[in-house]
Amino acid sequence: MIGSGCSPFGIGSDIGGSARIPSEWNGLCTIKPAFRYTTLGNAYFGKYSYGIPIKSEICPMARSVEDISIFCQFMFDPQNYIELAP
């Protein structure tokens, strides 16, 4: 959808290239954060992980580095956070 111009941004998850490889094949840009710095995305893969949770990284995808920069500026700006009712 991003590569065809239907969406300016997307969010994917990545363990061993699930977002990076398709992004490369479609001419997109993406960032995979270092797993020790993020708190998002623990995934459990049952018998394939021998009962150990596998860390999946949430990463943005876009058509250019400038688009990813805009996306990250918006997502990581504390003024854009929504407070949820208790």
Description:
By secondary structure, the protein is an alpha+beta fold. The chain has one domain. Helices cover 20% and strands 21% of the residues. The chain has 2 helices and 5 strands, in the order βαββββα. The chain has helices spanning 20-25, 65-75, and strands at residues 9-14, 29-30, 42-43, 54-55, 57-62. It has a 3-stranded antiparallel β-sheet. The longest helix is centred in the C-terminal third of the chain and has 11 residues, at 65-75. It is flat. The relative contact order is 0.23.
Keywords:
86 residues, 21% strand, flat
Summarize the topology.
Layout (H helix, E strand, L loop, with lengths): L8 E6 L5 H6 L3 E2 L11 E2 L10 E2 L1 E6 L2 H11 L11
Strand composition percent:
15-25%
Specify the number of helices. Answer: 2
Oligomeric grouping of the chains: single chain
Low-confidence stretches: 37-41
* Computed Rg: 15 Å
Question: Tally of extended strands?
Answer: 5
Order of helices and strands: EHEEEEH
Question: How far from one another are the termini?
Answer: 36 Å
Global mean pLDDT: 76
Give a short account of the largest sheet: 3 strands, antiparallel
Domain unit count: 1
Helical percent range? 10-25%
Major sheet: arrangement of strands: 1-5-2
Shape: flat
Structural class: alpha+beta
Task: Give a nutshell description of this structure.
The protein has a three-stranded antiparallel sheet. Strands 3-4 form a two-stranded antiparallel sheet. It has one domain. It has two helices and five strands.
